[in-house]
Amino acid sequence: MAIEREHEQVDDAETEPEVYASAEEGREYRTSAYAPTAYDNLELAAEDEEHPDRGNGDAYREVDLPRVPKLSHVLGPSAIMLGASLGSGETIFWPLLVAQNGWSVYWAFWVGVLTHFVINTEIQRWTLATGESIFRAFERVHRAWPVLFLVLGFVSFGWPGWAATAAKVGATGLGIESTFTVLGYQFLGWKAYGILLMLLIWASYQLTPLMYNVVERVTAVLVASSALCAIALFVLVGDPAELANIPVGAASIGTLPGDEDVAVFLGGLAYAGAGGYLNLSQSLWIREKGYGMGRYQGRVLNPIVGDEPEIVHRDGFSFEATVENMRRWRGWWRLAQLEHLVTFVLGVFVTATAMMAIAATYVTATDPGGVEMWLTGVAPDLSPLAGALLYGVLFLALFTTEYAIVESVVRNSADVIYEAVGRERGWSLPRIFWYLLTAFAGWGILILTLPIPIEQPFGLLLTAAAMSGAMMWPYTALTLLINTRRLPEHTQPGWPRIFAMWWATAFFGYFSVLLVGNTFEQLLGLDAFRVTIGVAGSAPGGFLLFVVLAATQVYVMSASAKAKWRAEETVPDAEEADGLFS
């Protein structure tokens, strides 16, 4: 009997699902993980309920989902997202909103951050399940979608005012005020400093073959330094009594100042996180890191100092709906959420709240917006040590955002161009990336050399932020529709997440309608499109905009709900994939 029991235990051990990676395998993810496959020899995934819908694309290849590593092995992608947000919402928009309107608007900040958390992790879902980027998912719906987002992204971030602002703050803090002459050209000190920063960003990509690794490590250092400096600044000059206002402000849901500018508020909502085009990079960053099925896709290597390019397959992968794979999916989904929560969400809350508390103490409603709010409304009242620390916080935040914007715009745009035209013409994705990086950095340097005012005035930043917020409306709705209508039951979002995405779509849709209506009325003089916060007092054209919003919302809700209902009980043992907030 003892021998029989021993054999039974051995059999159980042999059949126990292997879900988690060994320590050795997990450590591979620290420098990003890639597992090439014999792609052409893999079986085609069946067109059935257990695999993603192909849409306007070809078949997926079937392969097991990789084993799940530890959280400490995969930290990184969300640090870049945090870096993209530090120099906008966390140091400019929300401190200004709280300073001018009090803590009663803090509810919108935490709601915005958590809404970004849901959107960003849903953007990751398709890549975790298939290894394809979110842009490829959009392309499977229609080829126009990725191109539209590329155009809107460049309009939002193409003007290098963010680079000029970082340079001016850094140069002022270092006392670089003289004029330099190079090859007969005279440069203001801060412009020369800005050119140097842009060159440093470009040069950093040339350090190693795997460009993503440099970005992740540099950004991690910058965001950690920025957050620590912000906390130190609050300890040094902040008023702890301001923190007592947070609970009341957090509970004041729906409170909006009557004269609040819609663009400022929408910009704050968009930048309660990175916002707009930048959020879509989360899909590409986790693929570079090797999350989920992204481990089977090649990484973008530097074509100048790198090895042979790694293959990024046009059509991704799908895994068989076995108990082992579904438990691995549950582990990967938990890991992706946790990484984003402890890195992005926690970092945004701590840094932004510290800066809001400082602004609430020193800034008045009449102070200018943007970085000038800090330089003219706060810095003069601080001691030399605190003033130097303030300049350090601002520069670190702005430079981190400059670095992340370059990375995000270039990586997103390279992926869109490669899939839209490059792949068919035989272009290399790494070369597209490198040329775009060089062109984008060169564009910034060119603008910095011209004798024109290019500092990012608050109005220009406001326009970019508002556009980013408006851009989030269509891609949030599209992401939800893709994840419910194209993914099988065991990788679909659960009902709580579907409800959250309904909220996110309505959230950004509502404020986008207010923005569009105000733009028509104030800039174009079209009073017929006047909109009001309460809807009822809107002009006919404004009311029509709200009708479009309502119709869109009804379609998104009904289509995603029907897809979820249709998928129920179509995959045996699908509950094995269920996890916390799945």
Describe this structure in words.
This protein has helices at 2-15, 23-27, 71-74, 77-101, 106-130, 134-141, 144-157, 161-174, 189-204, 211-237, 246-251, 262-270, 281-289, 323-362, 371-377, 384-422, 429-449, 458-485, 495-522, 540-567; strands at 61-62, 179-182, 185-188, 317-318. With 582 residues, it is mostly helical. It has a two-stranded parallel ribbon. A two-stranded antiparallel ribbon has the order 2-3. A hairpin with a 2-residue loop joins strand 2 (179-182) and strand 3. The longest helix has 40 residues, at 323-362. It is globular and about 70 Å long. The chain starts with a helix and ends in a 15-residue tail after the last helix. The model is unreliable at 1-14 (pLDDT under 50).
Essential attributes:
single chain; 582 residues; mainly alpha; two-stranded parallel ribbon; two-stranded antiparallel sheet; 4 strands; 63% helix; 2% strand; disordered N terminus
SSE topology:
Layout: H1 2-15, H2 23-27, E1 61-62, H3 71-74, H4 77-101, H5 106-130, H6 134-141, H7 144-157, H8 161-174, E2 179-182, E3 185-188, H9 189-204, H10 211-237, H11 246-251, H12 262-270, H13 281-289, E4 317-318, H14 323-362, H15 371-377, H16 384-422, H17 429-449, H18 458-485, H19 495-522, H20 540-567
Helix pairs in contact: 4-10, 4-12, 4-14, 4-16, 5-13, 5-14, 5-18, 5-19, 7-16, 7-18, 8-9, 8-16, 9-17, 10-14, 10-16, 12-18, 12-19, 16-17, 18-19, 18-20, 19-20
